């Protein structure tokens, strides 16, 4: 949603919007690095072990966005947002199989994609409503960063359940 509201974001930060848009390739680079790196690690240790690290870069980028108006924050945000976005794709592809097996994979993926599409559509509108009610993007970025860190912490606290489930599914599948 920060990209969707780029005019408001750049104006509120005092940034040139043309510089902001010129740095989009950094986001693409982050996606590529995140996807390739996560895919390689997933093949060695499993998606459930990589999962908690997927939101950490985004949380750091959002925190930087919330706390600074420096022009360098654009690059930091784009690379961290890209890393997280890139990591999510291979994690999502492998995690469902590790946790639930393949019997209902189509249904699980369909539900996940539908949820992602809904959230992607609702997010910018929700953010706009917050902006209209004096909850600016810096404040939103801070809350979203905290949410990322809470989700990472929650995963580590429930990690043993993921491990047990993944081991059961792997044993049943003969992996």
UniProtKB/TrEMBL annotation:
GO terms for molecular function: transmembrane transporter activity. Keywords: Membrane, Transmembrane, Transmembrane helix. Pfam families: MFS_1 (PF07690). It comes from hydrothermal vent metagenome. Residues 1-175 form the Major facilitator superfamily (MFS) profile domain. The chain crosses the membrane at residues 17-38, 50-67, 73-96, 108-129, 141-158. The keyword Cell membrane does not apply. This is Major facilitator superfamily (MFS) profile domain-containing protein.
């Amino acid at each position: 949603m920060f990209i969707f509201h780029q005019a408001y974001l750049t104006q509120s930060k005092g940034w040139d919007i043309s510089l902001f848009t010129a740095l989009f390739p950094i986001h693409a680079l982050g996606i590529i690095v995140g996807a390739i790196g996560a895919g390689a690690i997933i093949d060695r240790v499993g998606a459930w072990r990589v999962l908690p690290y997927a939101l950490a870069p985004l949380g750091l980028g959002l925190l930087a966005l919330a706390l600074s108006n420096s022009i360098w924050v654009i690059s930091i945000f784009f690379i961290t947002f890209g890393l997280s976005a890139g990591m999510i794709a291979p994690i999502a592809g492998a995690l469902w199989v590790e946790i639930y097996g393949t019997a209902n994979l189509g249904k699980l993926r369909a539900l996940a994609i539908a949820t992602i599409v809904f959230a992607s559509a609702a997010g910018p509108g929700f953010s706009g409503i917050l902006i209209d009610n004096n909850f600016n993007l810096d404040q939103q970025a801070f809350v979203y960063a905290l949410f990322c860190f809470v989700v990472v912490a929650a995963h580590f606290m429930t990690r043993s359940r993921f491990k047990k489930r993944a081991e059961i599914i792997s044993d049943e599948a003969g992996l």
